[in-house]
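Read as chain and fold; for instance:
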Amino acid sequence: MPSRSTILSNYPVVRSCDPAFARDRLFKVYGANSFDVRKPHGFAMNADHVQIGGVGLSYVEYTGEVSVGFGEVSFVRQCFSIEGAARHTSSRQSGEIVPGSWSQILPAYQPLTFEFPSGYRQVAMRTEFDVLLRSLSALLDQDIGRNLIFADTPAHPSAMEALRRRVFHLAID
């Protein structure tokens, strides 16, 4: 995998062609519980992650097809494709992250699996569910409880499009 400077390259997690090492880092840093490389020959992974309080931002790119699974993690996440299309599946939903687009908000406390093709690159944001609830309750000045439901499509697509352009712009600079 060619070395490139990424938006989070000051926070490296893994730069490796070794699937076992990548697996170890995915489990320890990202909380994954499964990792499968379709063809270990030619595999490479670059990943960066910065965590500030209850919010984390990650960049990842793969050479080689991989599957990554997560258990019932305590955070919601949203993935922004920079290059390539990926699939995600949970017990309640599945979907595709198309090139230059983003996933719906993927809920916490549900097992989730991603299928990433070779050449896939993304930025992902994850927010601890309890931090999100506290922040929303404070912003709305009311207790919103734990039954937070995320719509499949954004209520304000122009705001999401602006965010996508900013994330994509940062990723290619």
